[in-house]
Design brief:
It is elongated, with a radius of gyration of 24 Å. It has 13 helices and 23 strands. About 35% of the residues lie in helices and about 20% in strands. It has helices spanning about 55-70, 85, 90-95, 105-115, 185-190, 190-200, 205-215, 235-245, 265-280, 295-305, 320-335, 355-360, 385-395; strands at about 5-10, 10-15, 15-20, 25, 30, 35, 40, 45-50, 75, 100-105, 125, 130-135, 140-145, 155, 160-165, 225, 255-260, 285-290, 310-315, 320, 340-345, 370, 375. By secondary structure, the protein is of the alpha/beta class. The chain has a seven-stranded mixed beta sheet, with helices on one face. Strands 17, 18, 19, 20, 21, 22 and 23 form a seven-stranded mixed beta sheet that branches.
Length: about 400
């Protein structure tokens, strides 16, 4: 029994899905799990593109052995050295003593770091524009440094038009039997996870992604084969446009997100009331989040989608409420830019949140902080509605 899929001439998907893993990189919640993709070309020579995480190693190895049907594995292309993709390298070198490792110059130091050796007698070192023929198939290699590690490279199969994209164009989520994006309702069921994956994993490196997009545009690409999530064989331009937008930190529309932190409910009530004012004023793409219970990775995904961000934040220990502070720090770390912020602060005796948040927000590139800044002392008062209405109007003017 083998769980594999023929995806192109001589080419098979043989990855696996982990539905038990709760936190990707022990950091990002993945309630739908995650897939690990690996690809095998059966030609005059056999070539494997990347291995998988240890969690799915045994069934993956059984699938690989079954596909090879007694043939040796000739080449292993190492696109990316994160352990969820490279964990089985030592195992394969032991099983196939003549296996060649297709690497670039930046891969070898990482091999030594993870495995204590870079197998110098087995290396097939490639660089930008290098090619490798397996018979009917010729792979052309392109470097994609900092998408999202420095050693990342992609491989283009001239015979099938498949671009093997490492962690580029991936997404959170286990595969539900289907391996192609056109076999699922991607926009409904996968887009949020794809955006959240991009924003949190790759988001800081937009300039590097732009470089990869330019290289891909110069090739007759027919398929995008990532290391996580579905394979793209149709409507590639739709997904490439998303990556182009995200990598330029451009919002997907006029969306507004209201994010609040609240200890006793007063700031939450103010945030909900403000969201109601926005809705009455015509804001359509509007969402409200409690930062204390919404994982930061979800807030980051929404921040990449939305044009405007309303922060309703109490003062806490003379500083910024920790859940809001974590969100702002993550936005800064991921180089989010080009957003408009509105601030509602709360402080019973010494409100300081807006004063402390504003420099952090304005330090982001092409960022605007709207006026007025609304200050609540304990609970929102009726006589502050005029201020709230003015801030509402400032937000709506940007929708």
């Amino acid at each position: 029994m083998k769980d594999v899929h023929l995806i192109a001439a001589d080419t098979y998907w043989l990855g696996g899905s982990d539905r038990r893993l709760a936190m990707f990189e022990n950091l990002f919640p993945i309630p739908r799990g995650v897939s690990y993709n690996s690809y095998l070309i059966l030609d005059e020579k056999t070539l494997l593109l990347d291995t998988v995480d240890s969690a799915v190693a045994q069934p993956w190895l059984e699938n690989l052995t079954a596909l090879l049907a007694g043939r040796p594995l000739d080449y292993l292309v190492i696109s990316h050295m994160e352990p969820d993709h490279c964990a089985q390298i030592a195992r394969l070198t032991a099983l196939w003593p003549d296996l060649k490792l297709v690497v670039n110059a930046k891969t070898c130091p990482m091999l030594r770091q993870f495995f204590g050796t870079d197998w110098p007698d087995r290396q097939e070192v490639v660089a930008e524009g290098s090619t490798l023929s397996t018979g009917r198939h010729t792979l052309r290699f392109a470097m994609a440094p900092m998408v999202h590690w420095p050693e990342v490279m992609v491989s283009f199969d001239e015979a099938t038009g498949a671009l093997y994209t490492a962690d580029g164009f991936g997404t959170f989520g286990a595969l539900d039997g289907a391996v192609f994006a056109d076999q699922v309702n991607f926009e409904r069921d996968w887009l949020d996870d794809a955006r959240r994956y991009y924003a949190n994993i790759v988001g800081k490196y937009g300039a590097s992604v732009q470089g990869l997009l330019k290289k891909a545009a110069a090739l007759p690409v027919k398929m995008l084969c990532p290391l996580h999530g579905p394979i793209w064989r149709k409507d590639l331009d739709w997904f490439l446009e998303k990556y182009d937008r995200w990598s330029r930190w451009q919002p997907e529309g006029s969306g507004v997100m209201v994010v609040y932190g609240s200890m006793y409910g007063n700031t939450a009530r103010a945030a909900e009331l403000f969201a109601g004012l926005l809705a009455e004023g015509g804001a359509e793409d509007l969402r409200v989040y409690d930062a204390s219970i919404t994982p930061v990775s979800h807030l980051i995904g929404e921040a990449f989608r939305c044009k405007q961000i309303v922060l309703a934040c109490p003062t806490y220990n003379g500083g910024v409420y920790p859940a809001i502070e974590a969100f702002v720090n993550d936005m800064k770390a991921l180089a989010l830019q080009g957003r408009t912020f509105a601030l509602l602060e709360n402080g019973s005796w010494a409100p300081a949140a807006a004063r402390l948040l504003r420099p952090s927000l304005e330090a982001m590139k092409n960022t605007t902080v709207l006026e007025p800044l609304v200050t609540i002392r304990g609970a929102l008062r009726e006589d502050q509605m005029e201020q709230l209405s003015a801030l509402r109007d400032a937000v709506l003017a940007g929708c």
